[in-house]
């Protein structure tokens, strides 16, 4: 096995021994100059780890060293780290040349030195791609384009994955126009544009509400032969749903059909949420039926959305039917399911049915919280069943909850109208303790307090 020349070994032994520098070892360090550093860093028989230790030693011990590593030293070690696939360290080192020292080396000097040091086209391509990523990570987007154009003009292979990472960086920085421009640069330079690259740009456009532009972009990419997936179109559908843009939603669904893309579970989630939000509950219910027909698992959440939708439309009978269907389809009913049905029944004044669902809920050991209590008490109050509302309010207090003051106000008014002075006085006192005195002071005359 070949070893580095003896002077190299002496210097490396001192640096890599992890022991304090003694007077005897200082002479070896004092012999280190820039030329020797170049020779050591470029010596194939010195391993990469020791090269990195030596370089860091020189940087951290400038009081002992008579020189600073120059561009060649930086890039020689950088090239070795890239070749060894130690990309994290390579990026850190390159950042110190490009960013941390205020770009003290001009771009042409960096590129010409790298061209000399990189012996193969593969290492050259990897090195320049790392350079592109470092600029991107540091927010130097103009320099990214400078590196990209240099690589294109000099026949250096541009990695599509590195470009996708840059697109992600632009998306996080909310640079929609830059990401769109970069995507087209990739196309013009024959860089592989993956479906994921496209989806990143589409997501950025949708995030900014530019759904039409995202659809037009997708259609343009399809015409260029880029294959679509349901994931990209789901991003657009989700944006349409959240912004209630159902004109674009229909166009995107048409595009999906044209491209032969099938709905996945997430597509159904998006569409059910969107349709129920605008009152198209029957359409949402039809989608859930389609999921069952295709053997897909239907989540409780989707049924809950439909139940809420029917209750908002005052169709409690349909809501109860959907509730029953959940049992038939072995879909778990959770707290939100019961809250949806009970709220709907309370709003329509069907308090007897609401109590039946409450009992069923308790049988399943689903906890009744303050929201559920308030919903029921408010329902009784609206129906004029003040006695029942007051009794439930007492139960609520016993289990440690406090009713909303607006609900208490409704019950208190009812008690006063019924001349239930003792109960009204008690409730009023509780309300005063909770700081409601200024708002409800008018009741003092009614109660003769």
From TrEMBL:
<keyword id="KW-0677">Repeat</keyword>
<dbReference type="InterPro" id="IPR050667">
    <property type="entry name" value="PPR-containing_protein"/>
</dbReference>
<feature type="repeat" description="PPR">
    <location>
        <begin position="369"/>
        <end position="403"/>
    </location>
</feature>
<dbReference type="Pfam" id="PF13041">
    <property type="entry name" value="PPR_2"/>
</dbReference>
<feature type="repeat" description="PPR">
    <location>
        <begin position="404"/>
        <end position="438"/>
    </location>
</feature>
<comment type="similarity">
    <text>Belongs to the PPR family. P subfamily.</text>
</comment>
<feature type="repeat" description="PPR">
    <location>
        <begin position="264"/>
        <end position="298"/>
    </location>
</feature>
<dbReference type="Pfam" id="PF01535">
    <property type="entry name" value="PPR"/>
</dbReference>
<feature type="repeat" description="PPR">
    <location>
        <begin position="334"/>
        <end position="368"/>
    </location>
</feature>
<dbReference type="Pfam" id="PF12854">
    <property type="entry name" value="PPR_1"/>
</dbReference>
<feature type="repeat" description="PPR">
    <location>
        <begin position="194"/>
        <end position="228"/>
    </location>
</feature>
<dbReference type="InterPro" id="IPR002885">
    <property type="entry name" value="PPR_rpt"/>
</dbReference>
<feature type="repeat" description="PPR">
    <location>
        <begin position="299"/>
        <end position="333"/>
    </location>
</feature>
<dbReference type="InterPro" id="IPR011990">
    <property type="entry name" value="TPR-like_helical_dom_sf"/>
</dbReference>
<protein>
    <recommendedName>
        <fullName>Pentatricopeptide repeat-containing protein</fullName>
    </recommendedName>
</protein>
<feature type="repeat" description="PPR">
    <location>
        <begin position="124"/>
        <end position="158"/>
    </location>
</feature>
